[in-house]
Amino acid sequence: MSDLDTLHEHLNQAHAELVSADQQLATTSPRVAELDVAVRGAVATSTALADLVTTLIRQAPRTLGHTHPQTLDELLADLRAMHGCLITGTLLLAPACDDLHQLHTHHQQGTTMPTEETPTNDLADQQRPAHPEPTTTNHQLRRPEDTLEANPADIADQDHEQPLPHPDYDNPHH
Fold first, then answer.
1. What is the pLDDT of residues 2-54, one digit of tens each?
2. How far is Cα 139 from Cα 153, in angstroms, rounded to an integer?
3. Is residue 135 part of a domain?
4. Which end of the chain is more exposed for a tag (fewer CB within 10 A), N or C?
5. Global pTM?
């Protein structure tokens, strides 16, 4: 098996596992423990993707270097932007991880969390309601533009159900 085949296999396995986890969560009513695991998994996955993007940023100049400088510049800019989004995403989830972990720990111990009857202040010292009312339901959050704050027109169309194409440039009849 070539390095390209191995890389492709690893990325497809990771993709398949994430799709499977997503489908499992989407078809059940997760408990606090599952939410805790899923959010922590999202953080770990985003961190791993950020590491992969960092490696791509380091390796791209070796591949494209002097032969394709314009492509290299555009690729590096896009990769840096993606890296920033991934890292920012993990930082945004940190408070949720802490809250879910605390809630999960209390559930395991058979205790309940004290309820907040008055608004509290978050880390940015912004007031938030003690018991926020959900504004949407899970079945309403099916499209990326429903959950992302980025402009969907700026996000490349992606088919999340399909495996990654095999970029075997050396042997197209593999």
1. 888 999 999 999 999 999 999 999 999 999 889 999 999 999 999 999 999 99
2. 22
3. no
4. N
5. 0.61
